[in-house]
Amino acid sequence: MIALDGLNFTALSEFDAILDVRSPSEFAEDHMPNAISCPVLSDEERARVGTVYKQDSPFAARKIGAALVARNAAHHIETQLSHHDGAWRPLVYCWRGGQRSNSFATILRQIGWRAEVVEGGYRAYRRLVVARLYEQPLGLRIIRLDGNTGSAKTEILNRLEARGVQVLDLEGMARHRGSSLGQMAGAQPSQKAYESAIAAKLGRFDPSRPVLVEAESARIGMLRIPPMLWVAMRDSPRIMLDISPAVRATYLAKAYADLTADQAEFAARLEHLRGLQSNERLDQWQDMIRQGAWPDLALELIKHHYDPAYARLRSTEAEGSQMMRITKDSLGPAEIAQIVDEIAAAL
């Protein structure tokens, strides 16, 4: 048995692979970083064994489960694990370090592979994530990058990260731009998977250096920012981008090109604002979509939706100290490069 030593996973670095033998749905909800899915029971098989356990007997359930585990283990050995040599050392885990992981590890050991099992399984890992994000002070110096919608915050953060600045991209990990129209392609991760991604990224940061994060509300799409991170963000100093609505509208029309490529989809998303905006205004915006008047629509959204929403949010939060304020009359490549230089020099 291998005990987890915290979210830096220093004890796991000696293993060649981490194998998650839980069912596919369990893996899809969340899993340890870099784990490979090797289910020894499918979702249907797991439900079947559980039913037999409750309605017949634990012995009958174990008999059926053992046959299924052996069959599925053989499939994994013959397929995705077949290329490994005799020196391969995998780490195996299931829900709580019980029968599924121990059974699979035993079969791997019989082959000659040096398999070990995570003590406490996924539950032990999840407890570490919860402690990091719900119970312990963050222990990192957070700085928020703030500015209204269309201020190029995401692009600036990406460029700063490429230059070695410690950046926590909460929207990227949430697969959502943070606005009511900001859903990216594909579904958002589960809350647990989101927290795993955040915890893994936090574990790689140097506590002696600041961490830059985009100023957010407490929710990004359907996901919640974990409480200890939210507290650290709420109390952190901010870098404010002060960009005019017209400049932001021009930038937004280009940055959201992936959303506007499908006019019908964008029009459907816009309908979610009905009730927040007057029917007359929504009808005008739908006309702009049909005409492909994206810069004009972006300016309308900024003036009547995004900026008022930011103003309401800021009125309910502590402003925090302002580290610096950056004003630009354009968001072209040269101006964005200047913003990146100014922020990098201040950190």
Keyphrases for this structure?
Rossmann fold; elongated; 347 residues; Oxidized Rhodanese, domain 1; alpha/beta; five-stranded parallel beta sheet
How is the topology of this model organized?
Blueprint: E1 17-20, H1 24-29, E2 35-37, H2 43-55, H3 58-78, E3 90-93, H4 99-111, E4 116-117, H5 121-135, E5 142-146, H6 153-162, E6 166-168, H7 170-174, H8 191-203, E7 211-214, E8 219-220, E9 223-224, H9 227-234, E10 238-243, H10 245-255, H11 257-260, H12 263-270, H13 279-291, H14 294-315, E11 322-328, H15 333-346
Parallel strand pairs: 1-2, 1-3, 3-4, 5-7, 5-10, 6-7, 10-11
Antiparallel strand pairs: 8-9
Summarize it.
The chain is α/β, with parallel strands linked by helices and 347 residues long. The protein folds into two domains: 121 residues, 3-Layer(aba) Sandwich (Oxidized Rhodanese, domain 1), CATH 3.40.250.10; 209 residues, Rossmann fold, CATH 3.40.50. Helix content is 51%, strand content 12%.
